Amino acid sequence: MQESQSLSQKKNFPLGKRTREPMWNGFALARYHEYISCCLNLVLLKELLLTMAEDDLSHPDLDKEAGEEFLQEVFQIMLEEGIRKGMDASEKVCDWKEPDDLQQILDLELKNGGEPRERLLERCRDVIRYSVKTCHPRFFNQLFSGLDPHALAGRLITEMLNTSQYTYEIAPVFVLMEEVVLRKLRELIGWEKGDGIFCPGGSISNMYAMNVARYHCFPDCKQKGNWSIPKLAVFTSRECHYSIQKGVAFLGIGTDNIYLVDVDEKGKMIPAHLEKQIIQAKSEGAFPFFVNATCGTTVLGAFDPLAEIADVCERHRIWLHVDAAWGGSALLSQRHRHLLDGIKRADSVAWNPHKMLMTGLQCSAFLLRDSSGLLQRCHCAKATYLFQTDKFYDTAYDRGDQTIQCGRKVDCFKLWLMWKANGTTGLERRVDRAFAFTRYLADEIKKRDGFQLVVEPEFINLCFWYVPPSLRGQEGCADYNLRLGKVAPVIKERMMKKGSMMVGYQPLGDRVNFFRQIVTNPAVTKKDLDFFLDEIERLGRDL
Ligand SMILES: Cc1ncc(COP(=O)(O)O)c(C=O)c1O
After folding, report:
1. Which class does domain 152-422 fall in?
2. Closest atom of ligand 1 to CA, residue 143
3. Whose CA is nearest to atom 14 of ligand 1?
């Protein structure tokens, strides 16, 4: 303050003298006053900014106490509205609203001013209220569902710590933990050694596989690009996940270079046709470098015959990747792991514990049989600001250069904590229970009029048509398929608007729309399964 007073005094003096000169007219005088007041304002502004800057630096702009109170209230809302009600069969799975109505209710636009605590808590309640409860015992729509409290605790702690998995210095616990979890998954595959990384989803794990396989065949490609290598060919079944197509496009291989392999009536790849396609690709001048076998196809839940596919790959020296994003968790079950017989012969595997094991999104492991550092060589960029070679600890623990990411979320902790809580046998029980649910429903379907299985389930995908009374006995009619294909979408609309349950449907090849029901949630009971079939009948019998 003192300094500013003296400053304004100094500035005023010479000009003050000039104001008394007669040649100054009224206009000039007015401009002069304007100038003076402008100078004064600037000085005051400067003072204000200086005081504010001092204040800014000396006091936090975050009310820690209010923040803690807010969090406690939010946790309470999460427990009550999201978890307790979300898992209660008598509550709605979703409170359906048309997009325009939902926009109105939520008032989503972001504004200049902040809102008071009560309003924010109200908003949190609304977000939960109008979201789909994937932990609800009647949510059968996705390949993930349910809620494991230990996995959720892991997710919350991970979010709270807000770290990145790339170096030991910033994530010491999680670097060690990730390796333990990946080793456990590799052991279940049957590999004593190997490598791997948690990826943001199965689609990305599948892309990693292609990238590593390409680098394995043509290391120069990393530097010189696809121009330095022959035209590549990828082989996968017609029933594979669409991420193979996306990965091929993303990596510049080109979707025209996917050779689709036929499947049998259950949806399994036919190895003889795979070999035929490989020979065909070679005759067209392409370089077959990657075979993707799927264990647990997305719609039918089919497992490709790995041992026979591995024989073909060995004969032609092609990388074998197994997309076990969906079916990989069957490896935990002594009773059902035979579905993946031969998986240990794969070069790489994608496995999503966030699906059948219920860790919560996302938790996807990309696992490699190679233990020579292929993953690191393929992806490393050696950034000196992150992966300094002269660090004070063993930099072998800085695993982040193995990935195509920089910052990487911690995805291992939720799985680790859940595994610690349930043990391997507890997880095995869960997997077996999911198979038992599906068996029960498939048997029930056979007893009920109007229900028809698309295929006998081998895994936990229950695919079926509901044929309403008006269509029964009319299989020979010309428009039968057309009319049957319209049944599932109407039933779906009705269940969503009622909020009673959720299940997916889709067409597949020449099969018109059918339901695909998935139960992974161990909170589901026989009562929920019976409700499911009864509700389909209730919602569709008038169609
Ligand atoms: C067989 C299969 N592979 C890969 C994926 C992709 O996994 P994500 O959704 O984690 O990208 C899915 C997803 O459903 C799948 O069913």
Report:
1. alpha beta
2. 14
3. 298
